[in-house]
Write a structure and sequence with these properties.
The chain is 41% helix and 17% strand. By secondary structure, the protein is an alpha+beta fold. The strands form 3 sheets. Strands 1-7-6 form a 3-stranded antiparallel sheet, with helices on one face.
């Protein structure tokens, strides 16, 4: 330990390095996606110059346009608040490779980032046994939200229904012609 960390202060100060690496990977992946126009078009969360407000304005605009053409509008709102816990690691890696053209080095790094994580629950002063985490992106991570966005990007292709996504809420809007008898 002495050769790697001559002082306790140095060891404590090096603990930030994995977060720095994660932030660099996130920024590079984000830049790659934006430069190559690969970011899901209607994704508003975790993007610069986008917000819940932009998602809401898009849905509102689509509804008004449908009303102008005398179409009926159906709005479905999905609460995906536990969605970050459901991300399949292998599936997100496949989507990164095939859907977004990520290279082998990137895929290996992200696989390493998602692998070998565990969880433990504290309840009533007692700790549960440690269990491996087989799904989900790390809570509080910088890269986790971007991985979720890329994982959920397939929603854009579901039945060609326009959708808008903001954080953990997704709206799907359908319009149809309706004739009164």
């Amino acid at each position: 330990m002495g050769a790697i960390c001559p002082t306790t202060d140095l060891c404590l100060n090096l603990s930030f390095m994995p977060k720095v690496a994660e932030r660099v990977v996130t920024e590079q992946l984000n830049e790659y996606l934006l430069t190559n126009d690969l970011m899901p078009r209607y994704q508003s969360a975790y993007r610069k110059k986008h917000s819940t407000e932009t998602a809401l304005l898009r849905v509102w605009s689509d509804m008004l346009n449908a009303a102008d053409t005398r179409q009926v509008t159906l709005l479905s709102l999905l609460d995906l608040s536990a969605a970050f816990d459901c991300v399949d690691h292998e599936l997100v890696l496949q989507r990164l490779e095939h859907g977004f053209g990520s290279a082998d080095v990137v895929l290996r790094w992200i696989h390493s980032f998602l692998s070998d994580r565990t969880q433990q629950v504290a309840y009533g002063g007692q700790l549960s046994t440690t269990r491996p985490l087989l799904f989900g992106v790390p809570q509080g991570s910088v890269l986790g939200p971007l991985l979720y966005i890329l994982y959920a990007a397939e929603l854009e292709h579901v039945h060609a229904i326009p959708y808008s996504m903001s954080c953990v809420y997704t709206s799907m809007l359908m319009t149809a012609n309706f004739t009164f008898m």
